[in-house]
Amino acid sequence: QLQLVESGGGLVQPGGSLRLSCAASGFTLGGYAIGWFRQASGKEREGVSCINSSGSSRDYADSGKGRFTISRDNAKNTVYLQMNSLEPEDSAIYYCAASVGRCVSETYKYDAWGQGTQVTVSS
Question: For the chain, which has fewer Cβ within 10 Å, the N-terminal or C-terminal residue?
Answer without folding.
Answer: N
